[in-house]
Amino acid sequence: MPIIGVCNQPFYRKHNDGSYEGRYIWGYNIDHICRNNINQSMIKSESDIILIGGKESIELKDRINKFAKTMYVAGAGHKLLNVAVGKADLLLTSSKSTYYWDTCAIHAILRSIGGGIIPFENFIHMNDVIDKQLEHSQIRYREKTMTTKNIECNHSKGMIAYRSIDAVRKTLNLLKT
After folding, report:
1. Are 162 and 110 in contact (CB under 8 A)?
2. Which residues are involved in binding Mg(2+) (predicted)?
3. Can you say whether the dihedral through the CA atoms of 157, 125, 140, 39 is positive or negative?
4. Which pLDDT does position 153 carry in this prediction?
5. Residue 80 pLDDT exceeds 70
6. Per-residue pLDDT averaged across 131-138, rounded?
7. For 120, which DSSP code?
8. Is residue 79 scored above 70 in pLDDT?
9. What does residue 108 show for φ and ψ, rounded to 5 degrees?
10. Which domains does the chain have, with CATH numbers?
11. Which strands sit side by side in the sheet containing 4-14, from one edge to the other?
12. Could you give phi then psi for residue 114, rounded to 5 degrees?
């Protein structure tokens, strides 16, 4: 599991002259010692926004829209960064089109704020003892042999990226009703 992550956001703010200002977001979780440079005072406790992949079913979107606003944001890294900085509570995607290099740095940052990334497939089967299951369900990275299609390096079970256990618990309970 990644312990340190740094993410560059090159187009963080646009200036009046048309130029852009970038920023770095970093975080670490080493033996439960967590630090990051995310300004927590700027983040609402819950945004009620769930980011989704572009290939999610209408049925899933409709179920989520009953209790939260769904938004599609392009790019895996951009979606994950929005969860890390509090613009969304969760990223939910059943797609297999996200790769290890898209998630590794942000995974460490999410872990530094009490969040994480779990396989979508595991999420659907979780029960009320979610707190204990989340730690053991975290996506694991392992060395794979590179292939021409990089199939060995994708998150083949989809993924859920989250900021807090409460967001996961709330979403799971509402999806099961």
Report:
1. yes
2. 102
3. positive
4. 74
5. yes
6. 78
7. H
8. yes
9. -65, -40
10. 4-176 (3.40.190.80)
11. 4-14, 20-30, 33-36
12. 95, 10
Tokens 């730690």 locate to 135
The span from the CA of 65 to the CA of 63, in Å, is: 6
pLDDT score at 146:
59
Task: Give the H or E element holding residue 49.
Answer: strand 49-52
- The answer on whether 102 is annotated among ligand-binding residues is yes
Exposure string of 130-155, with b = 16+ CB inside 10 Å and e = fewer, is beebbeebbbeeeeeeeeeeeeebbb
| Amino acid letter, 91 | L
List all residues 6 or more positions away from 1 whose beta carbon is below 8 Å from its beta carbon: 107, 111, 138, 139, 140, 141
Confidence of residue 63 (pLDDT cuts 50, 70, 90): confident
CB distance 138 to 116 below 8 Å: yes
CA distance 9 to 93: 22
pLDDT of residue 169: 84
Query: What percentage of the chain exceeds 70 in pLDDT?
Result: 89
Mean pLDDT calculated for residue range 65-83: 89
* DSSP conformational letter for 68: S
Global pTM value? 0.86
**Which range among 11-15, 52-56, 66-70, 125-129 has the greatest average pLDDT?**
11-15
Cα 60 from chain centroid?
Answer: 18
Rounded to whole angstroms, the Cα distance separating 46 from 165 reads 12
Instruction: Report the relative pairing of strands 49-52 and 33-36 from DSSP bridges.
Output: unpaired
